[in-house]
UniProtKB/TrEMBL annotation, chain B:
Superkingdom of this protein's organism: Bacteria
Subcellular location: Cell membrane; Endomembrane system
Family according to the record: Belongs to the ATPase B chain family.
HAMAP family: ATP_synth_b_bprime
Coiled-coil residue spans: none
Role according to the record: F(1)F(0) ATP synthase produces ATP from ADP in the presence of a proton or sodium gradient. F-type ATPases consist of two structural domains, F(1) containing the extramembraneous catalytic core and F(0) containing the membrane proton channel, linked together by a central stalk and a peripheral stalk. During catalysis, ATP synthesis in the catalytic domain of F(1) is coupled via a rotary mechanism of the central stalk subunits to proton translocation. Component of the F(0) channel, it forms part of the peripheral stalk, linking F(1) to F(0). The b'-subunit is a diverged and duplicated form of b found in plants and photosynthetic bacteria.
Oligomeric and partner information: F-type ATPases have 2 components, F(1) - the catalytic core - and F(0) - the membrane proton channel. F(1) has five subunits: alpha(3), beta(3), gamma(1), delta(1), epsilon(1). F(0) has four main subunits: a(1), b(2) and c(10-14). The alpha and beta chains form an alternating ring which encloses part of the gamma chain. F(1) is attached to F(0) by a central stalk formed by the gamma and epsilon chains, while a peripheral stalk is formed by the delta and b chains.
Entries under PANTHER family matching the protein: ATP SYNTHASE SUBUNIT B, ATP SYNTHASE SUBUNIT B', CHLOROPLASTIC
UniProt protein name: ATP synthase subunit b
Keyword Transferase carried by entry: no
An example Gene Ontology molecular-function term: proton-transporting ATP synthase activity, rotational mechanism
InterPro entries found in the cross-reference section: ATP_synth_B-like_membr_sf, ATP_synth_b/b'su_bac/chlpt, ATP_synth_F0_bsu_bac, ATP_synthase_B_chain
Amino acid sequence: MATEHALTPSSYIEHHLSFNSQSIGNGSFWSLHVDTLVMSVVLGVITLGLIWWVARGATAGVPTKRQAFMELVFDFVDDQVKNIYHGDRHAFIAPAALTVFVWVLMMNAMDFLPVDWVAALVAKIGGEHTKWRVVPTSDINTTFALALTVWFLMIYFAIKAKGLGGWIHELFCSPFGTNPLIWPANFLFNLIEYVSKPLSHSLRLFGNMYAGEVIFLLLGLWAATGVTGTIAGAILGAGWSIFHILIVALQAFIFMMLTVVYLAMAQESH
Amino acid sequence: MDINFTLVAQAIAFFVLIVFTMKFVWPPLLNAIETRQKEIADGLAAGEKGRAELEQSSKRASEALAEAKVKASEILALAEKRATQIVEDAKGTAKAEGDRIITGAKAEIEQEINRAKEGLRQQVSTLAIAGAEKILRKEIDAKAHAEILTAIAKEL
């Protein structure tokens, strides 16, 4: 929106959608998105730290309002996990689900920060051309990182529950049957499943958050075109923000549910 | 789409957060909630038990009360009967005693009358003799006629 640089719409959007990337070695893989990392780690530490702080002083007697709120979140997650996973959920799956839910929710919620205010603040601190994206979940690296972590956990739990032999047996013998003739079909089927799980898991979240961000940017662009555009952009921006509350919460919820479902499925034998 | 080392860093951060939640966040909350649930369940059970006990003891109390009432009325009836009997007995005794006293008195009176009669007879005979003596001082021998006078006195 800063007009004195004679920004074009594409450069505006490009500026807002570029990462603060720092190279740490040769090749494009060896670089870090500092903005994504800092935002996500800070959010994770603040959110889970807050829950930890409340949980540390948790009492079995009459809870404080703080504790009651945390217990509400706890119960919400615990109920969802309880319906899906029937093993000892408190050992790993439920805490993991809580982590995923609150962390992704907070990362998604960064979308509510007005894009240009953030840009102005960053420009003030780091200089005019500093790039800084505040929504870690609109970085494909974040969503893939989460999905792949869940994917590895899924395989780990599958092997732990069935044994390595059992897991390989299942790769070839389910879902169609144990006949050697249909082993290839089974294996192909499982392969597709194992590939599609992390892809759909991560791309769903990424797509929703990225699209949300782009729409905010477009509305911001419109707001720069004059009085009419400012009013229309403000009204539509407010509308999109309100709708986005739903998307933010829903995507965090879906991400958590898929995590739980994948991890629960891994431990069930077919 | 540029996949880079951020992915690895984020995965590590994610894993660390999960472990942190698993070790430090989940257990205390779970513990607090489960302890409270257990306490509430225990409290409800104790309340239920207390209510049942109260019901039972109030039932027992009303039973005891009814029993006591029955016993009390029995005792009352018995006492009334006994009182009536005592009164009847007393009446009977009094009447017998009265009869005895009356009979005794009558006998005594009879005796007194007889004694008085005897006395009177004696005195009459004496009087008659005295009168006759006065009238017949000269011609009547007291000793000779005493026999006749005694016979007359006996007839009185």
